[in-house]
Specification:
alpha/beta; Arc Repressor Mutant, subunit A; Rossmann fold; 5 strands; 55% helix; SIS_dom
Length: 290
């Protein structure tokens, strides 16, 4: 069963969080989420009892949903809603259409990417980032898994880790992932990249790694997904999909940003070693340029 999001002192983008969770919620929680999304301004002035009455639910169900989006309770969610409404974010999640000219395409596609980065910045937990960097820095071996559109991100993470002196290996084949995961050990860290967190192959590999004793880190989109139950540390992105801009687009931009941040955090934990490795590899790569 998916675990609720970690509670946060500050709770940015609560409407985005509710929208991301909505599709995986049971009927009662989905009804509460829809009511809050559709009546955000009114909910600010309501009590938890009023929201429960208006949604034919219980006060406990309302509080439980608030905790799933990262809040301590209903009051914190109300404060977060008030902040969101006072300083509204300009959402650019429009889909492209056959009538769009080149300028509209530029505005929509690049605007959506910018929004994904901004939303990911708000959803990424600094404490989880710190834990992930520490785990990778202390690991004897780092295994990186990615399938489909996540495969290039996994390969980029591998390249970047090797360049700062981390003993890392990437697997983008599901059979190899399963084998590598099954022979992991407590000294291994597994970094799994999956936008949906529900891809069968990466779920299996992450579960096998956790069962073998490895420390598991998942880079996945905010929401409830099966991978959460197998991940010791979760680094969240916040990227919306539309008809023509599916997970191969904005999610990969958000994932790359999270990986960039993670690599920087790892490098800073052992600054001298990282700089030395970067310099040595730079000299090697320089010989390949004219």
């Amino acid at each position: 069963m998916a675990q609720p999001s970690p509670l946060q002192a500050d709770l940015p983008s609560v409407l985005d969080r509710l929208a991301a969770l909505r599709k995986d919620l049971p009927p009662t929680a989905k009804r509460i989420a829809d009511f809050i999304i559709d009546n955000a301004a009114a909910v600010i002035n309501m009590s938890v009892t009023e929201v429960a009455d208006r949604t034919a639910s219980s006060e406990g169900s309302v509080v439980s949903l608030c905790q799933q989006v990262g809040g301590r309770g209903f009051q914190q969610v109300k404060l977060a809603l008030a902040r969101d409404l006072v300083k509204p974010v300009q959402f650019i999640h429009e889909d492209v259409s056959p009538d769009d000219d080149a300028q509209n395409l530029i505005t929509k596609v690049i605007g959506s990417a910018q929004q994904a980065l901004e939303d990911t910045k708000k959803s990424l937990d600094p404490e989880k980032l710190k834990q992930a960097a520490e785990a990778i820095s202390n690991a004897a071996q780092v295994e990186i898994f990615g399938i489909g559109s996540a495969a290039p991100i996994a390969e980029d993470a591998h390249y970047r880790l090797v360049r700062i002196g981390i003993n890392a290996r990437v697997s983008v084949d599901s059979h190899v992932q399963a084998v590598v995961a099954s022979v992991s050990s407590p000294s291994t860290v597994v970094l799994t990249i999956s936008h949906s967190g529900a891809t069968v192959e990466t779920l299996l590999a992450t579960r096998l790694a956790k069962e073998a004793g490895a420390r598991t880190i998942a880079v996945t989109n905010f929401g409830k997904s099966p991978i959460l139950q197998f991940a010791d540390i979760v680094l969240t992105t916040m990227a919306r999909e539309t008809m023509f801009r599916t997970e191969a687009m904005t999610s990969r931009i958000a994932q790359l940003a999270v990986i960039d941040t993670l690599i920087a955090a790892v490098a800073l934990r052992n600054y001298d070693r990282s700089v030395d490795c970067i310099n040595r590899t730079f000299e090697v790569l320089s010989s390949k340029r004219f």
